[in-house]
Every structure is written in C-alpha cells, then in structure tokens.
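Quick one, probably user error.
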C-alpha cells in the first residue's frame, strides 16, 4: 500500500479547473435552448425583452465554461488545502498499485517446408 500524504495545492487547482471547464462546455446547449425559447416566447409580446433575454443566454453560454473553470480552480485548491490539513490527524488515502501487464501480440511464424 502507498499512502498519499500531501496533495499539491496548485496542481489540484489546475486539474479541477480544467475538469470543471469541460463540465461547463456541457451546459452550453442548455443556454442556447433557453435563448431560442426566449425569442419564440416573445414574438407575440415584447420583442425587445425577448431579444435581451436571448442575448443574455448567449453571453452566459460563452461565460459558463470560464466561470465553471475558475470555480473549479478555487474549489480544487481549497480541497487540497483541506486534505493536507486533515492528513496530519487521520492519515492519508491508501492506494494499492499493480504493475501494468501488457500482452504481446502473437504473430504466427511460418514454418519452412522440408
């Protein structure tokens, strides 16, 4: 067993920030769907309000991955700090590693005919 005693705060922040940025990309279609509904819903009423709402949803679609990424970066650093603090009292994560076993492909060798 190997024990993780400390986690790099900045590296955890970068990894979490990148993961949350990717999660932020997943919500972009939702914002575009809401923008389309705002335009369609406002056709019979106030078109300016519908256009404003649609514009705000497009802006949010662009900003969502950035906001998610920044929040993930901050959360990752805070979680690493908390982990490093708590491991002083309760120990670290126990991890068990196994060597990677790669199978070599078998290639048929031609046998010469005598």
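Nope, works fine. Designed sequence:
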């Amino acid at each position: 067993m190997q024990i993780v005693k400390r986690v790099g705060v900045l590296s955890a922040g970068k990894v979490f920030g990148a993961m949350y940025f990717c999660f932020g990309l997943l919500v972009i279609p939702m914002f575009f769907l809401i923008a389309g509904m705002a335009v369609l819903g406002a056709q019979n009423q106030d078109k300016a309000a519908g256009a404003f709402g649609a514009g705000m949803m497009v802006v949010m679609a662009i900003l969502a991955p950035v906001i998610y990424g920044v929040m993930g970066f901050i959360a990752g650093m805070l979680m690493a700090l908390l982990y490093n603090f708590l491991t002083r009292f309760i120990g670290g994560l126990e991890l068990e590693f196994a060597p990677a076993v790669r199978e070599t492909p078998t290639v048929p060798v031609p046998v010469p005919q005598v």
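The chain has three helices and two strands.
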